[in-house]
Specification:
single chain; alpha+beta; OB fold (Dihydrolipoamide Acetyltransferase, E2P); 2 domains; three-stranded antiparallel β-sheet; 3 helices
Length: 165
């Protein structure tokens, strides 16, 4: 019985190698060969995909996946490179609020605003608590914004997103 099991495992392993090679062959047909060297510019892929914002978000899947570009400063191995990264203080995303798109009350009773960020596209707008914006950006005056704190223009979308506040 154990000999039959061992023989079956051996056969499976022998069949798996050609199948893997065939899958690699087909996948590589659509991948252009890439050769990188010192001085080339590349994007850095970070994991987990977490971008630290003003407030902790419940869903990080839409955060940036690639950062850069950064220059390759040294080749360590065949596919390992050392990048010329900026100093740690320069890695922080410097954002400034540009406009308030919407305001509403979260189910927890906290008033939140949909902030459009300067030099970022509209789809990067984020919901932030009003207190956080006032604390982090004291020069950004929310009082002069002509918005009524209620359901806002986004309705149920805002309620779904704001469940985390």
């Amino acid at each position: 019985m154990t000999q039959d099991r061992d023989q079956m495992l051996h056969d499976l392993k022998n069949n798996l190698v050609p199948a893997q090679n065939q899958m690699k062959k087909y996948a590589d047909q659509f991948r252009p060969p890439i050769s990188l060297g010192v001085g080339d510019w590349v994007y850095l892929k970070l994991q987990p995909y977490r971008l630290r914002s003003l407030a902790k978000k419940g869903n990080m899947k839409l955060s940036p996946r690639f950062y850069g570009p950064y220059q390759i400063s040294k080749q360590i191995g065949a596919i390992a490179f050392e990048l010329a990264l900026p100093l740690e203080k320069e890695l922080k995303l410097q954002v400034t609020p540009a406009a308030v798109q919407d305001v509403c009350n979260a189910p927890s009773g906290i008033s939140v605003v949909l902030i459009l960020w300067k030099d970022l596209p509209n789809f990067e707008a984020t919901w932030e608590p009003i207190e956080t914006i006032m604390e982090k950006f004291p020069s950004f005056h929310l009082e002069d914004k002509n918005i009524v704190i209620s359901g806002g223009a986004f309705g149920s979308y805002a309620e779904d997103v704001l469940g985390e506040f």
